[in-house]
Amino acid sequence: MKDMRDDYLWDPMKAGGSPDEEIARLEKLLGRFRSPDASALPLPEGAAVQVFPRRASHGGWRKPVSIAAAAVLIIAAGWITLSWQGSPTDAWRVARLEGSPRVGLHVIGETLSLRPGQTLETDSSSRARIDVGEIGEVEVGPDSRVQLLEARQKNGSLSLEQGTIQAVIWAPPRCFLVRTPSAVAVDLGCRYTLHVNPDGDGWMRVTTGWVAFQKGGRESFVPVGAMCLIHHDSGPETPFYEDSPKEFQKALASFDASIPNPAKQPAPNQSGFLQLVLHFARPRDAFTLWHLLSRSDGDDRGRVFDRLAQFIPPPAGVTREGILAGDSHMEDLWWDALGLRDTEWWREWKRDFPSK
Amino acid sequence: MDSLRYSEPLEQSQETELPPRVVEHADVIAARSGDRAAFGRLYVRYLPMVHGLLLAHVPYTHVDDLAQEVFLQALRKLDSLRDTSAFGGWLATIARNRAHDFFRGARADSELPEALAAKTGKPDPEALAALAAIRRLPEAYRETLILRLVEGMSGPEIAARTGLTPGSVRVNLHRGMAQLREMLGKG
Question: What total of structural domains would you count in chain A?
Answer without folding.
Answer: 1
